[in-house]
Specification:
This protein has 326 residues and is of the alpha/beta class. It has helices at residues 4-25, 45-61, 94-105, 117-125, 143-156, 164-173, 177-194, 208-220, 238-243, 260-271, 286-307, 316-325; strands spanning 38-42, 66-69, 82-88, 109-114, 130-132, 198-204, 227-231, 248-254, 275-280. Strand 6 (198-204), helix 8 (208-220) and strand 7 (227-231) form a beta-alpha-beta unit. Bound molecules: 5-phosphoarabinonic acid.
């Protein structure tokens, strides 16, 4: 019997994405929020991950540059010409709260994206607009809530320009539940054969945010350690360490587009891994492909946990770390 987290990824993501996008579009930020020359997304873990995707989308489709901060401080250049999203699912992450306070003091146009918590109440006290996002069983499972809220808001401000058809296609893909379950099941079979070796998730440079997200999902939900490699960069350094081992396993995120498919194939041949698995990313454009990879990451990591008698929701090490820094 699939657990709550798996069911949420499977059954709720499409609806969560659609409502979050609509909420983002109608957030009602004042016109001054459109008069910026940079966007900064501050957030940690499952919340900060949404920023990686937005930064990649602005580089690819066009818009103002988007920077991601996964730390407790915003850069000194953040000021009145910057739009800053402070993103924390719980609203209680120290690093993100500190970023919000600093960005506010530096005069940035600030928005809090959260379920509430300390960030929500601080923002309300200081007159900072808050995008309250929908419920999810864990911050990482709230990825569509966080990502599509910011996407809708950036598009409505004219700061990010995406073809509407790609946004629609990305959400429609999340309705292909049977295909996604089959894909996740196959991947979990393979993961079971390579656990314990050096697992690397390899993506072409524009799809790297999905590899990083895959790594985090496998760690938090499946308790599996892996790393994320970006091609072509990984072909200039880490490839040497990979090729020198007998237990290297590659999970290749293939966007099924040239030149990337050929380059990824060449990279794998040069590594000569003990085992490899190619996940073909569904969809026509970059956004749908990124979303497909992200969805399969969530489904396969929770399914892996369940098949191995692990609790995908339990993250004791993160809790211990948070106690240290809070
Ligand atoms: O998914 C998780 O549980 C974590 O990666 C959290 O996202 C991370 O600890 C930050 O917490 P929050 O998203 O509530 O700011």
């Amino acid at each position: 019997m699939p657990g709550r987290l798996y069911r949420f990824y499977l059954d709720e993501w499409a609806g969560a994405a659609r409502s979050a996008y609509a909420a983002g579009v109608s957030l009602g930020l004042s016109p001054g929020y459109a008069c910026v020359d940079t966007v900064v997304v501050c957030g940690m873990g499952g919340s900060g991950a949404a920023g990686d995707y937005l930064a990649q989308l602005s580089a690819h489709y066009g818009g103002v540059p988007i920077y991601v901060v996964k730390a407790a401080s915003v850069p000194g250049w953040v000021g009145s010409k910057s739009l800053v999203y402070a993103v924390s699912f719980s609203g209680n992450t120290r690093e993100t709260l500190e970023c919000a306070v600093k960005a506010y003091r530096q005069g940035a146009k600030l928005v809090a994206v959260t379920r509430g918590g300390l960030l929500g109440s601080w923002a309300k006290r200081h007159g900072v607009p808050v995008a309250f996002i929908g419920e999810a069983p864990a911050p990482r499972a709230g990825w569509p809530n966080l990502f599509y809220t910011m996407l809708g808001s950036l598009e409505s401000l004219g700061l990010l320009r995406l073809p509407r058809s790609e946004v629609e296609e990305s959400i429609e893909l999340l309705g292909l539940r049977e295909d996604a379950e089959t894909e996740a099941g196959r991947l979990v079979d393979w993961l079971g054969t390579v656990a314990g070796g050096w697992l690397s998730i390899v993506a072409a440079e524009p799809y790297y945010p999905a590899a990083v997200r895959f790594r985090s999902e496998l760690a938090e939900n499946a308790k599996l350690a892996s790393d994320a490699s970006q091609v072509p960069e990984a072909g200039h350094n880490i490839i040497v360490g990979m090729a020198g081992r007998r237990d290297t396993a590659l999970l290749i995120l293939d966007p099924v587009e040239e030149p990337w498919t050929t380059i990824l194939k060449g990279f794998a041949e040069a590594v000569g891994p003990a085992s490899s698995y190619t996940l073909r990313l569904r969809g026509k454009g970059m956004l749908p492909k990124l979303v497909w990879a992200t969805w399969i990451a969530g489904l396969s990591s929770t399914l892996y946990a369940e098949r191995h008698g692990l609790d995908p929701e339990a993250i004791p090490a993160i809790k211990a770390f948070r106690r240290l820094v809070e």
